[in-house]
Amino acid sequence: MQTSIKTQNEVEFSLELNATADDLAVELKKALKEQRRRTTMHGFRPGKVPLSLVKKMHGQAIGEAVAADFIQKVYQEQVLDVGKYEVLGQPVISTFEYNFEGDLHSVLEFGVRPDFEPADLSGEKISQLVHSVSDDDVQREIDKLLEQEADLVPIDEPADDAAFVVVDMQSVDIATGTLIVGAKRENEAFLLSDPEVMPEIKSALVGKRVDDTVRVTLTHAHGEDEETHEHKDVFELTVKEVKRRELPELDEEFIKSVTKDRIEDEDTLRTEIRDHLIDGWAQRSKEALEQEIVERVIDRNPIPVPSSVANMYLDSFVKELEKRFNDKLPANFDEANYREYRRNDAVRQARWMFVRDHLIKAEELEITDDDRRSHLESMAGDNPALDVDMLMQYYQVSQGLMDQLDQRLLNDKVFALLEPKFEIEEKDLDAYEAEMEARHSAANSSKIEGVESEDELDNADNPVVAEVTND
């Protein structure tokens, strides 16, 4: 047997192996005997089928399995066990040449953790969202509570732009103007104040009464840029009900109802809502700042990423999609196309992992029981139903939960290390969202251009593209 390990680049290596038939002979003989013992054939007693027939029927498959095991054994001994390489991800056999009872030639490729020093972040500027909760914010939450408990009351009046309207939608042949038999959707409901309602429908229904009929043309666009096409559907809408939402009074009875008797007066309710909003905006600001830090760290550290690690992340992207489709991707889903489209995302996530792991090791960050307990105490808050000792026990006995908690707490410590390195500019909601929208548009434009110029996708109108958004 001859082996050699060659450097492909600073994070990828290949193990080339040449083995003779004699090198495989002992294990191959064992495997053939085991297969013979299991083989049954008419005219022969169990386990007594001639070895020549076993070889003829199963020889190549058995030989390949023995050869694959041999490669794995050599990889274990010469790569994993020597301690020289910190292998990441799964190795890939890129070359496999073997004929039954002959010699073996193979090449196994593997990736390793890159050796690097994180870039100096001094002077890097990032934005932080800062939002002061106003009385208007609180009132909007109060209005939502009232709207959720509102009664829908039928009215004998034209629908206004806040009405609740129930209609029958009859499809119309766009060429002839006649109704299409069997193409009717009954009791379709529209809250005209809902911004999700198509403006054509809202415009058509405002001012209409019960039994009024109106036709509406809905235009649907699909495609990209010059390839955009329009499709039109015509419907005849027959108004069946017009209702108005009657809001309840913001009185003691209502407040006790929506708070399950915790709160009785309006001032206390508004104070609690304000506190929740302040906490919510603080959390949103924290998560957005952390995302900004991650993106900037990735941009400043163009670390080489082995294919094995990128593929590891791509596997996770596909699994996430499978969950969204009830654990089975659509029959027409182009997985190879999707993987290529998301490859840059995988590389960026890998780079963040490398920097994060480097900081954890360099700064000797670890999670103690005190850290866990402090976090769980924060979770429990003033809720008497949540006992910290019981929470600790629950996390300890629940598979994977404690590890998830530790990773979250490690993230907090990593961000605590990174945040002081940046110059942070506070921005209000309007300025922050404008900046994010401009950046998002530029990134999408660059991504589409890259797809077209590098032929990374068969087309840019990919049916399933997972985007990261901040709620």
Characterization of this structure:
- With 471 residues, the chain is α+β, with helices and mostly antiparallel strands.
- The chain has helices at 21-38, 51-80, 135-148, 199-205, 252-258, 266-300, 307-324, 335-362, 369-380, 388-397, 401-418, 429-454, and strands at 2-9, 12-19, 87-98, 104-112, 125-129, 151-154, 164-172, 179-191, 213-222, 229-246, 423-427.
- Strands 6, 7, 8, 9 and 10 form a five-stranded antiparallel sheet that branches. It has a four-stranded antiparallel sheet with strand order 1-2-4-3, with helices on both faces.
- Helix 3 crosses helix 6 (266-300).
- The model is unreliable at 448-471 (pLDDT under 50).
What's the CATH class label of the domain at 2-112? Alpha Beta
Percentage of residues in helical conformation = 40-55%
- The structural class is alpha+beta
- Summarize model confidence as the mean pLDDT: 90
CATH topology of the domain at 2-112: Alpha-Beta Plaits
Q: Can you tell me the CATH architecture of the domain at 2-112? A: 2-Layer Sandwich
Q: Give the overall shape.
A: extended
Span between termini? 58 Å
Number of strand elements: 11
Key phrases:
single chain, 471 residues, alpha+beta, Alpha-Beta Plaits, Chitinase A, domain 3, five-stranded antiparallel sheet, 12 helices, 11 strands, disordered C terminus
Layout of SSEs?
Layout: E1 2-9, E2 12-19, H1 21-38, H2 51-80, E3 87-98, E4 104-112, E5 125-129, H3 135-148, E6 151-154, E7 164-172, E8 179-191, H4 199-205, E9 213-222, E10 229-246, H5 252-258, H6 266-300, H7 307-324, H8 335-362, H9 369-380, H10 388-397, H11 401-418, E11 423-427, H12 429-454
Parallel strand pairs: 5-11
Antiparallel strand pairs: 1-2, 2-4, 3-4, 6-10, 7-8, 7-10, 9-10
Helix pairs in contact: 1-2, 3-6, 6-8, 7-8, 9-10
